[in-house]
Amino acid sequence: MKILITGAAGFIGYHLSKHLLNAYGDDAELVLIDNLQRGKMDDDFTSLLQDKRVKFLQLDLTDLSAYNQLGNGYDHVYHLAAVNGTNLFYEIPHEVLRINTLSLIYILDWFRKNNSEGKICFTSSNEAYAGALAAFNQLPIPTPENVPLVVEDTYNPRWSYGGSKLIGELFMIHYAAQYNLRAFIVRPHNFYGPRAGYSHVIPQFCVRVAEQVEPFPIYGGDDMRTFCYIEDAARAMRLLMDSEKTDNRPIETVHIGDMEEVTMHELLDKVFKVANWKPKQIEEKEGQKGSVARRLADISKIKNLVGWEPKVSLDEGLKLTYEWYKNNKKKV
Asked: Within a domain: residue 158?
């Protein structure tokens, strides 16, 4: 089983790599690609690369010459590479758009010319449909995959990421139709776990709790979300990739997420409980512009396709995540 993973040094790529090595055993042959601009050559990733079944290539996928090094013969390709992180949507929206879109165009052209017998997965995002609720107040909850995709405000830099994922879905759907590719799209819904960086809400909560920050800030405390533990997410991606049910035309778009909704206050209380600490004062702050108040994915499609559902509860996942961040603190 020869597998290519782009963005492999990132959060999802690292955990997906470990999961696939465990799932496929001696049959696994992984080629991992990353430019290491955001993904890190840390102790965890370095340890992963010691496995004899793993090969690493440091490449910039917006450079056409990089594709000369990829070779071919891959059974599965997971295209995870993208500029992510909410702060970056606001700081470098032009680069988010350029890198995310260009790398997908190039890898699709490489795939159809050099690896068309394989199967490719594109990771989109729930950001792709986040504008429908704010713009029209018509987003059903739970949200199915076939909701309208709306860019609420092209002037809001937050949409650089969601917009790149929206256009990415269009590229996947129509390239697959034109060139008869086996492909599918997943929309992750708030994956979390160890080594998830420091720009998302659970890592920030964990680090601030570990450092016993006073007063403790919370942004958009009444906003509601679900969170899917990364091992559950990696298993979902593998099951979808292995299934013949995702070889169909038009290609499938599939949500991966949990169904346990919590407010940000409830989430923070769970982290306090795990750490056995609570601040004397909570400092309420407004959520960032463009952030929607509620997201809840309908995951009935993935259940019907491959029988997947989450196994790791939020309480259990937070314990594992907090322990990692307690030992890998960074100022946020």
From this structure: yes
